[in-house]
Design the sequence.
């Protein structure tokens, strides 16, 4: 018998002072049986960082041709492609050919550093690629907020992200390893 996805609900109240974006998002996420709580929280963070009316989650871990999150324009063209972790360089190149902007939210401690060291030279040629890195401490703090039903206020200012639930405030500061030369509007 196949294991089923776990349903996780996240109600996000986003105040993004950097982009002047203020909105509420009631999210229903399917957590694949092989997806860790850390990865799911990285998806929530990625959503908060790039929230907008057309941003949506990909079909999941079992569908390799989809990103973790993406935003398409009204014609179906991909404006923004977001992958988590340490994707293969070839996958990133393909994504850069399909989308106006590609973002990799890199996390994983030492593995993230090794991935960057191995791929930095090849990725530097991709003009529409942004690589954001989360420290191991930030990832641990972010994961501590995980619950099957989350209500989070998210405040973003000067590149710093504060996630606030009923009892805690977690501050996460993604670091740019590489910025796209042009960003999608």
Sequence:
């Amino acid at each position: 018998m196949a294991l089923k996805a776990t349903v996780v609900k996240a109600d996000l109240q986003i105040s993004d002072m950097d982009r002047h974006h203020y909105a509420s998002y009631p999210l229903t996420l399917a957590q694949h049986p092989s997806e860790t709580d850390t990865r799911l929280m990285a998806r929530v963070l990625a959503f908060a960082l790039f929230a907008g009316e057309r941003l949506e989650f990909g079909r999941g871990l079992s569908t390799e041709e989809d990103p973790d999150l993406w935003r398409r324009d009204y014609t179906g063209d991909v404006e923004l492609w977001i992958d988590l972790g340490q994707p293969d360089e070839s996958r990133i190149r393909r994504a850069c050919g399909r989308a106006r902007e590609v973002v990799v939210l890199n996390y994983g401690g030492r593995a993230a550093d090794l991935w960057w060291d191995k791929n930095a030279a090849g990725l530097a040629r991709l003009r529409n690629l942004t690589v954001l890195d989360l420290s191991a401490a930030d990832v641990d703090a972010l994961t501590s907020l995980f619950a099957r039903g989350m209500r989070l206020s998210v405040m973003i200012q000067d590149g710093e992200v504060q996630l606030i639930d009923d009892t805690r405030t977690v501050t996460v500061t993604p670091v740019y390893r590489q910025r796209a030369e042009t960003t999608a509007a």
In short: DSSP finds four helices and eleven strands in the chain.
